[in-house]
Automatic annotation (TrEMBL):
It holds the Pfam family PPTA. Keywords: Leucine-rich repeat, Phosphoprotein, Prenyltransferase, Repeat, Transferase. InterPro entries: Leu-rich_rpt, Leu-rich_rpt_4, Leu-rich_rpt_typical-subtyp, LRR_dom_sf, Prenyl_trans_a, RabGGT_asu_insert-dom_sf, RabGGT_asu_insert-domain. SUPFAM superfamilies: Outer arm dynein light chain 1, Protein prenylyltransferase, Rab geranylgeranyltransferase alpha-subunit, insert domain. The keyword Protein biosynthesis does not apply. One of its GO terms (molecular function) is Rab geranylgeranyltransferase activity. It comes from the Eukaryota. It is an enzyme of class 2 (transferase). Signal peptide: none annotated. This is Geranylgeranyl transferase type-2 subunit alpha. Its EC number is 2.5.1.60. Catalyzes the transfer of a geranylgeranyl moiety from geranylgeranyl diphosphate to both cysteines of Rab proteins with the C-terminal sequence -XXCC, -XCXC and -CCXX, such as RAB1A, RAB3A, RAB5A and RAB7A. Catalyzes the transfer of a geranyl-geranyl moiety from geranyl-geranyl pyrophosphate to cysteines occuring in specific C-terminal amino acid sequences.
Amino acid sequence: MHGRLKVKTTEEQAEAKRLEREKKLRQYVAATTAIFEKRKTGQLDKEALELTNQILGVNPDFATLWNFRREIILRLEGEGSPEEMQSLCRGELSFLESCLRVNPKSYGTWHHRCWVMGHVPHPDWTRELELCAKFLESDERNFHCWDYRRFVVQRAQVPAADELRFTDRLITRNFSNYSSWHYRSRLLPQLHPDPQQLGRPTEAVLLKELELVQNAFFTDPNDQSAWFYHRWLLGRAEPELTILCVYVSREDSSLAVVFSQPVVVTPGSCDLLLFADEALLAVNWRTPDGRNRPDLMWLCDLPASALNEHWPQHTFRVQWAGGESQKECVLFKGRSDSWCRDSVTEEQVFRCELSVEKSTVLQSELESCKELQALEPENKWCLLTIILLMRALDPLVYERETLSYFDTLKAADPMRSAYLDDLRSRFLVENSILRMEYAEARVVDLSGRGLTVLCHLEQLPLVTHLNLAGNRLRRLPPALAMLRCLEVLELDGNQIETLEGLPPLPRLEELSACNNCIQRPFDLRPLASFPRLRLLALQGNPLDGLPDAQSDLAMLLPRVEIALA
């Protein structure tokens, strides 16, 4: 036993570690207490700076101490020369670099570095770019470092072309560098802005990028970075805020305005102006639900003088934000209503018109993706891209094939089946709106399409008959209030449990909600505020079995003919 090194037992090692932790904790608490005492007494000196070094060196996420360091540096800046400040900031930058080695994703450290670079008399921006490159080499997705690099680029006025070449190097080294792909999406619109689409690059640049990204996802089909960038390339600029439709009803003495984006009309403001026969009308604007929150539709009541039946016509002009967008509608004598609306095809609401060159490139991309999908049949990114390419080329021509690919995609990616169902529903609604416009109809048949959500209702304010039977809807959206002309609504064979929250529809006369999941008459309470409702069909709902259902509904809706089992 003699002469041998004693090996500590597990209990002894644990005790030694516990004592070491306690010792460090006491030192940490003592230093923190001393720091706060110095701050409290206003001792903003180099000793306080050194004390914060001890804490931030091991815990760079102590935000209060970074604030204290800034207070100290500002005091020392006022007391010293520019040369001393330069030296102080150089030391601070060196200390920050050591903190970043402890935690390269420390919010406080990167923020403090920005602050120091804003106060150093002679900043070395080249050195900062090199620092960013070094940290991005070790972690190419460090978004803190990417944010700091953008700050440096802005302050140093680095040309966007240089930064684009920087992303070229990173992407060539690793196609999976999502942050570099994202940075390209910010740089290209700066370098090659499309005058027709704000925030998008020109078509020639997009076509070159499509070739680059195709090489990436053929190299590694399962990496999502390039697929996401490809989706951005297929996207479009955010639509401008415009007035989509103006609808005037002589019968209701009302006017409705539909916007392309939700807006707020502040009472008493000049945001939304209404002119009747070129005379400004003082009206009170409201949303369909009366809550006056940001909304796509705003309504107002019209005075009797604006609807004189003896005049041959009345011209209503709506103006938004000082003429930024305006639309005019003429109501002729003898007409009960009138409207003026944008065309979804002419305004390219759901897709852009493609040039011959772009159409050829996208068609080639589609064929390439189909070839890749044959090799990688369960690659969800490839399947989704095929769907998006078909949408970009021609949503109506490729509708049946798109639905087939959705089924394949759901089987390959069951965790996102709900999202895919909603996306599929959105595409089907868009297609129906396109067909409705081509036929110049006011009847929309969306029955039996497996819809899980309703969207784009701002495009349907003039619809009189909406058939949603045989879908998978669980609820009706408040946006249904925009269907001011709706007279017949068919909801048979869905999964709707309640109509609670359904806004009043002023023209609705017939509502059929058979074979849903409505259990109580109370769930139909909103229908009491529908002024014209005269027929309600509810066969096949659980409330059929309630003994007092018929009488309860008769009390709730005395003017309505109700059909139960």
